[in-house]
């Protein structure tokens, strides 16, 4: 398969060649006409200069002065044109040829040439001048006037063989072709280097995507020190690869953890059920093991329900349509009441630092209730028996803050960065939390992230505290007016 570099360079080279081809065609059609017109314009200028010189040097209307002939020769050598003068009858009286016995002197032009010249006031055409030249020439002619009375005293003819003009065009064309070839080579070299530089990361990306297709997300593209769009693309590609690799790792961890969490209760249920069926478990212990089976079944049900909640939250997020104003204080108190029996069983002291007035916030009340429930459930589960459970609620700077603090074992500092990961359990939770599935705190973090809120955890000297925020609802118009009046 052709590399991206080869395709890119081929396309660029084709564009360069096509550009020069179109430029060459334009030069053939337009440049040739321009060169010929420029040359003929130069011939007209020569004719005007010779006419002025003849007017100044002609004595008594005579155009065969030797100094005038020298002028014709000089102009002819400079321009490459053949120049001669005729009298009013059309007889050649002076020529640019330096040969004294010039073959042109004394020759007579046809009357048709002079008639056309007198009728138009000038002559500019391709002609043989009535047989004066053996083959057609570009001829420019105009009258020479007397300085005394402005009468016509003769005519100046400037002629050029068509081959001379073609040679001039050929010279120009050769110069163009040489310059064009040099520029084309430079353009192709630059295209080669640019294509190679641009295509290298693209080729690497193509190879990396083929690795991705086979499940290998470890491949990266070399970014170098590029600051252009390709560099930005390479950086974005590597960022995407990092995200895919982490996502794949999370997926593998999730599958492994789910397999482990499902395997434990299912193994327990299957083992005890088989023991009941084959009589291994005595009749008098059946109720005990049936209770264990029921508890493991409930644990399995909680695990599946938690995973469904997380899947639904990750796929749809917390819908903005469900967000409304509600009293966070009421949510905290109601949730606390649902844990009254569990708190009494562990003989926990409840330290409630709650405000007297309502704390109205904006959010999904069911989701925030789930956050408070999970944090209280986690705190009561790991609180030391007979210790104090502290729940606080306050507001500041447009945010409501909820704190849940328990007294129990300290969470290792190495575990704190992973406390909100799926299925993460510290050593203490594995030893104490036989009913947990490791998804409660992950669900808490997911709900708060969906609300754009924060949660923090600290654990030190046997005290573990979780603090999260919720956006305060804007004050009602009457309340707002009262505050402004108070100010």
Summarize the structure.
The protein is α+β, with helices and mostly antiparallel strands and 487 residues long.
Could you explain the architecture of this structure?
The strands form 3 sheets. A 5-stranded antiparallel beta sheet has the order 2-1-5-4-3, sandwiched between helices. A 5-stranded mixed beta sheet has the order 7-9-10-12-11. The protein folds into 3 domains: 4-168, Beta-Lactamase, CATH 3.30.450.20; 229-315, Helix Hairpins; 321-479, 2-Layer Sandwich (Heat Shock Protein 90). Mean pLDDT is 80; it is low at 427-434. The protein has helices at residues 4-57, 66-79, 111-120, 162-213, 229-278, 286-316, 328-338, 340-345, 365-382, 427-432, 440-451, 477-486, and strands at residues 82-86, 92-95, 123-127, 137-145, 152-161, 324-327, 349-353, 360-363, 388-396, 399-407, 455-460, 463-471. A hairpin with a 5-residue loop joins strand 1 (82-86) and strand 2 (92-95). The two termini are 76 Å apart. It has 12 helices and 12 strands. The chain is an alpha+beta fold and 487 residues long. The radius of gyration is 51 Å and the shape is rod-shaped.
